[in-house]
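Lab meeting, item 3. Inverse folding demo.
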């Protein structure tokens, strides 16, 4: 029989966070082996559960007629109004309920925003390293992802000169992931203002992924890039998955703000796509107002002595003690992106490196090239496991790297 082939649109699409190495991990688990998973920010898997008031509110609302039915294609009024209030707290001007779209997590809305914008050959500037969904949806939407480099030497801040050099006649937008996944960088106001100025000069849309905006350490403060101008079009993404430990609820939002006067046709496209999927899941929508208006327990987790802060500090300390490993201490998010000195670790294929680490030490990480980093010299580590498991996992990584150095020493 004639083989049934996948779409050619998938030729340049990758998502190694859930890729071949994870498939191997599942096989090993099926065989009864225990894997320490440092590959994905699935907070519930590490015992970090949603605030109880969110859970109870969803339970109370589930039997209702509203929860069982479709909503407006953009979502229920009350949670969208709560998002408007949140944008006001973030100093984003001029947002109305009509500018807010609720989605099945921010991921659905990121895809929707690109599908509504891009024609074949249109370019979007995306950071390297990036959260690979952004690169994937640009490709699936017919566009061309163009990666601008983030500079490890400056704490993984965007290289502004590289951004300027990569703006071309087909560039439509720039993606800003702040706080950053996978590096944990938090962008200062002057860098954000410089990006806004580039967008202003070249009439680019700014797509801002801010899903970790409350997961910030050491007293630092997150600034929404959309708060810095009203003459540029911004599309900002956020949700409950990380700050409220509600990954499975799939409750996210997208906010269109700034200069909307020349974007009526694009917004019409967003409305069309929102209507085509009917609506986001209603129970998840019902969690948003309670979450945003309730006690912000994420502050306890990221404060000095809080669980996430302790685990970040521990992972950074332990990794930094391994010969040939350097790592920028994250200011935000749940990840770090360590570098392996190529002289000590001459890695040609970092996916094979991750595979071998899994096979030999039963620790699952994601290789750096899975985040569209060009060189096989980084990996992403999630510091969500409790301190004992994290110490064990990094101890296994240290042992693997020690053996690697012995095998490749000259």
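The presenter then showed the designed sequence:
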């Amino acid at each position: 029989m004639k083989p049934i082939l996948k779409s050619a649109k998938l030729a340049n699409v990758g998502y190694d966070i859930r890729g071949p190495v994870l498939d191997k991990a599942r096989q090993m688990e099926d065989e009864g082996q225990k894997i320490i998973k440092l590959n994905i920010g699935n907070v519930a898997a590490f015992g970090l559960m949603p605030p109880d008031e969110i859970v109870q509110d969803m339970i109370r609302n589930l039997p209702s007629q509203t929860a069982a039915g479709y909503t407006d294609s953009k979502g229920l009024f009350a949670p969208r109004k709560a998002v408007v209030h949140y944008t006001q707290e973030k100093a984003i001007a001029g947002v109305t309920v009509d500018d807010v779209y609720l989605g099945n997590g921010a991921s659905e809305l990121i895809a929707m925003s690109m599908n509504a914008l891009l024609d074949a050959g249109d370019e979007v500037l995306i950071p390297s390293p990036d959260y690979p969904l952004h690169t994937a949806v640009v490709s699936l939407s017919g566009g061309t992802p163009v990666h601008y480099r983030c500079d490890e030497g400056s704490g993984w801040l965007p290289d502004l000169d590289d951004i300027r050099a990569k703006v071309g006649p087909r560039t439509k937008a720039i993606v800003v992931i702040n706080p950053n996944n996978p590096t944990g960088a938090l962008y200062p106001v002057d860098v954000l203002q410089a990006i806004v100025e580039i967008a202003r000069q070249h009439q680019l849309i700014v797509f801002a992924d801010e899903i970790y905006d409350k997961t910030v350490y050491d007293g630092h403060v997150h600034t929404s890039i959309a708060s810095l101008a009203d003459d540029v079009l911004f599309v900002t993404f956020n949700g409950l998955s990380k700050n409220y430990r509600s990954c499975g609820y799939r409750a996210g939002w997208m906010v269109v703000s700034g200069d909307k006067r020349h974007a009526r046709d694009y917004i019409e496209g967003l409305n069309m796509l929102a209507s085509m999927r009917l609506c986001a899941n209603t129970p998840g929508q019902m969690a948003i107002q309670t979450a945003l208006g309730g006690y912000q327990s994420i502050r306890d987790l990221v404060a000095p002595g809080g669980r996430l802060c302790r685990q970040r500090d521990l992972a950074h300390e332990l990794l930094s003690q391994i010969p040939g490993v350097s790592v920028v201490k994250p200011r935000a998010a749940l990840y770090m992106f360590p570098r392996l000195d190529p002289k000590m670790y001459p890695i040609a294929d970092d996916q094979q490196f991750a595979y071998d680490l899994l096979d030999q030490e039963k620790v699952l990480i994601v290789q750096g090239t899975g985040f569209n980093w060009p060189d096989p010299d980084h990996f992403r580590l999630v510091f969500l496991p409790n301190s004992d498991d994290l110490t064990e996992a990094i101890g296994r990584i240290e042992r693997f790297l020690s053996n690697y150095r012995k095998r490749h020493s000259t």
